[in-house]
Design brief:
The complex is a heterodimer of chains A (199) and B (255). Chain A is of the alpha/beta class. In chain A, strand 1, helix 1 and strand 2 form a beta-alpha-beta unit. Chain A is built from six helices and 14 strands. In chain A, 55% of the residues are buried. In chain A, the strands form three sheets. Chain A has an eight-stranded mixed sheet. Chain A has a four-stranded mixed sheet with strand order 6-5-7-11, covered by helices on one side. With 255 residues, chain B is an alpha/beta fold. Chain B is 36% helix and 28% strand. Chain B has ten helices and twelve strands. In chain B, helix 1 packs parallel to helix 2 and helix 7 packs parallel to helix 8. The radius of gyration of chain B is 16 Å and the shape is globular. The relative contact order of chain B is 0.15. The chains are: A alpha/beta (199), B alpha/beta (255).
């Protein structure tokens, strides 16, 4: 099994790479439109700010290649947020626009620190091959200050003062808001499922 | 909501885990990678690795063991020790760390916090604070890894944590030095005061000696996580037992 990670200077490449390697997958890094077009399955990692990540994707000329990619695509953490249309982060950022909706800020409250940092339970909404073998209520490790819009794409959600879309899918485009590479058994299973999706 | 995190802290010196009483008189506790794997399997929610000699010796930590640990772990981990530039922090992340904790360099150059947050995202910026009660106030100390280099930082703890949050810290680890290594319990009053001033997660550090200390700090200081070292390394508290006890006392943990 081979999986390709997009290296664009705004991603947690190493930890995602090691997680796939623990599953026995061969991992390659890609960073050009031509390389993206050729791969079997693509992971879009991301940490940091949405505006910066999108600027990097534009500088490298990768936006159209990601939009046109026809096989399994998995956005991780910020990578999931990038799949949506816009984000309020950085004063408003235009995203990839592959799933409808706007990414909003999490508002701090007495019982809610921001960032949402730590282990939360996944409540399953619908069955999906990406969630095969992941039990309802499984724990996953989250670190984020912005939250994706809840909608038909939500496969599983965490609760953090409101629903946090934790796993999303719209056709072959999928995302994990949490860090599957740092989410013990449940995360490992999701990455394994992604590797086994028909390309 | 999130589970309360149990965070073993591995103080690393020359690749070995060490632990002392009030940071003095270090004792060898075992190999860092070996202990990391043991904690991963016992249900630790996160690990912290401090290269305790790096900052006083004026060097940064060794990226080699960061990568060794990143390959091994499927839970998050934070690294600390002598990280004084955004570039060094970025290299820690490039080698697989999830978070980078800064302490003395942030006191000398607070803009380091802002620089890291801007470039790497605030979620990975942890500010460690060593605090001691003196002359009626909680005060920040620096270079606590080395008894000879250690000195007061000329700041009040409660002011500094709020400033760090404003600059872009994503989490504060508040190490209460009066409690460190003596196992009499966390400094609940200080942690509660800190919690009330912050909107970012707060992790308690220093003083864990018994299961009840964890229950108390989560209930009374409302911290997101509790960090401890010697009680875990020595086997005094087994993490599965601790988590079951917390769960039985109504503290939500990942079981």
């Amino acid at each position: 099994m081979t999986v390709s990670l997009l290296a664009y200077g705004a991603g947690n490449i190493a930890s995602v790479r090691f997680a796939f390697e623990r599953l026995g997958a061969a991992v390659e890094l890609v960073s050009t439109p031509d390389a993206i077009a050729a791969v079997e399955r693509l992971v879009l990692p991301g940490v940091g700010a949405a505006g910066y990540a999108m600027a990097r994707l534009r500088e490298l000329g990768l936006v159209e290649a990601i939009r046109a990619f026809p096989r399994p695509l998995l956005g991780v953490c910020l990578g999931q947020q990038l799949l949506f249309e816009t984000s309020v982060e950085d004063g408003g950022a235009e995203l990839l626009g592959l799933i409808p909706g706007r990414v909003e800020a999490i508002v701090p409250a007495a019982d809610r620190t921001v960032p949402h940092m730590g282990w939360s339970r996944l409540a399953r909404r619908v069955d999906h091959p990406l969630l095969a073998g992941v039990e309802d209520g499984a724990w996953a490790y989250f670190v984020h200050g912005f939250v994706c819009p809840d909608g038909p794409a939500t496969l599983a959600a965490a609760d953090y003062g409101g629903p946090v879309p934790a796993v999303v899918a719209d056709g072959h485009r999928m995302g994990c808001q949490f860090h599957p590479e740092r989410s013990a058994a449940a995360g490992q299973r999701i990455l394994q499922n992604f590797l086994e999706l028909p390309a | 909501m999130t589970a309360r995190r149990i965070i073993p802290c591995l103080d690393v010196k020359d690749g070995r885990v060490v632990k002392g009483v009030r940071f003095e008189g270090h004792r060898d506790m075992g190999d860092a990678a070996e202990l990391a794997a043991r904690y991963r399997d016992s249900g630790a929610d996160e690990l912290v690795f401090y290269d305790i000699a790096a900052s006083p010796e004026g060097r940064t930590l060794d990226y080699g063991w960061v990568e060794d640990i990143a390959r091994l772990l499927d839970i998050p981990f934070c690294v600390a020790g002598g990280i004084r530039t955004v570039e060094q922090a970025a290299r820690c992340l490039d080698h697989g760390a999830d978070k980078v904790s800064i302490n003395s360099p942030a006191l000398e150059r607070p803009e380091l916090i802002a620089g890291m947050a801007e470039r790497l995202g605030r979620q990975c910026v942890v500010v460690g604070v060593d605090s001691q009660f003196q002359d009626g106030e909680w005060r920040v100390h620096k270079y606590t890894g080395d008894p000879n280099a250690r000195r007061g930082a000329g700041r009040l703890t409660m002011d500094w944590i709020v400033e760090a949050q404003g600059l872009g810290a994503g989490e504060i680890v508040l190490n209460c030095i009066d409690q460190d290594g003596v196992r009499k319990g966390y400094d609940v009053a200080q942690l509660r005061a800190a919690r009330d001033r912050l909107t970012i997660p707060l992790v308690a550090s220093g003083g864990a000696g018994a299961v009840e200390h964890f229950t108390t700090v989560f209930r009374e200081a409302d911290v997101s996580g509790a960090l401890a070292a010697s009680v875990f390394h020595s086997g005094t508290i087994a993490i599965p037992d601790l988590k079951r006890a917390l769960d039985a006392n109504g503290v939500e943990v990942r079981l």
